[in-house]
Amino acid sequence: MSETKAYAAPSATEPLGPFQLDRRAPGPHDVQIEVLYCGVCHSDVHQARDEWGGSTFPMVPGHEIVGRVTEVGGQVNKFKTGDLVGVGCMVDTCRTCPNCQQGLEQYCETHISFTYNSTLQDRQTRTYGGYSKQLVVDENYVLRVSDKLPLEGVAPLLCAGITTYSPLRTWGVGPGKRVGVVGLGGLGHMAVKLAAAMGAEVTVLSTSPSKEADAKVLGAHRFVVTKDPEVLKQERNYFDLIINTVGSNMDLNQYLLLLRLDGTMVMVGLPPEAPQIGIFPLVGQRRRLAGSHIGGIAETQEMLDFCAEHNIVSDVEVIPIDYINEAYERMLRSDVKYRFVIDLATL
Ligand code: NAP
Ligand code: ZN
Ligand code: ZN
User: Fold this and answer.
1) Quick one: pLDDT at residue 1?
2) What's the rounded Cα separation, in Å, for the pair 281 and 293?
3) Exposed end of the chain (fewer CB within 10 Å): N or C?
4) Residues by chain with Cβ below 5 Å of ion ligand 2
5) Is any ligand 1 atom within 6 A of the Cβ of residue 290?
6) Atom of ligand 1 nearest to the CA of 294
7) What is the structure's pLDDT at 258?
8) What is the C-alpha separation between 167 and 199, in angstroms, rounded?
9) Given a cut of 90, is residue 220 above it in pLDDT?
10) With a threshold of 0.90, does the pTM exceed it?
């Protein structure tokens, strides 16, 4: 066991503050990691404030982790001390169910050990995330990170990157496809960069007119302000795929109408309340509404390698750990370009 400094939410209604936790000594298959940077995902806020229900406290959030290996267990063969590595939303799964067997660990049918606010496979040992100095993870759930990209920009790839890369790949995005991205936040700006790099025509559908110039720099070809229903009407029957990253309640029906024949809207945003879905917009053009959850370990490695090859990182604002409560408030106001990343040297 080693005592590790961290930042935790003591309860759903209190701000985050300093916390001490015990990390296990590395077992034969474990990698011990010094955390260098950790991205701040909107899911951290949802969970720290118990908006989805079932949160456990104290909670140390953080699942966009980049760090350096400080020690490896005797049977680890993928990593050695000094390697740059990443850890995303999962630190273990059952490994035996049909989904785990085919590399779709994010859809494990038995039990996903999420990086925080969860338990290990024993269903008892609680997990604590990347708002901490150090982490110990089984090597099979650790990713290789290129030393060619700025590490603070790589951290958000571990959740925002893979969560948008996976549906873009699943729905076959490439040249000739029209992709809409709803919400230009942490996930949204990664969806724009990745879809553009895959060769698609990308349109940002945003509530913030002020983000238009940024959207173009990120790689978007078109920008639509969604506040005016008349403007949205002009976009009807246009998109092959819409990636919806909004985590607040919104009228999804008007976005479904923007899909052309056989088009799909994939929800990656996770609003706490169930939306009202009209069947008529679905039936009209044989449209589909789908969901997608992060990505598997192999696919996450593929995404990191794709980003290294295409020189893609997240646009980040690096913050000290004691700025985290202010960062949450600013993220809720869409006031971040486009991801906060904690520099753990400040802890
Ligand atoms: P974020 O950085 O806060 O971005 C969300 C964006 O949505 C905002 O920048 C804003 O963009 C837009 N928006 C916010 N409130 C809105 C409203 N009321 N109506 C319409 N648009 C609104 O959040 P994030 O970190 O990207 O996460 C987004 C969601 O994805 C969260 O619910 C998170 O929990 C979820 N998530 C899911 C997965 C998964 O595996 N499925 C993984 C990670 C995160 P504009 O200013 O451009 O409108
Ligand atoms: Zn996340
Ligand atoms: Zn499984």
Assistant:
1) 80
2) 24
3) N
4) 41, 43, 159
5) no
6) 40
7) 98
8) 15
9) yes
10) yes
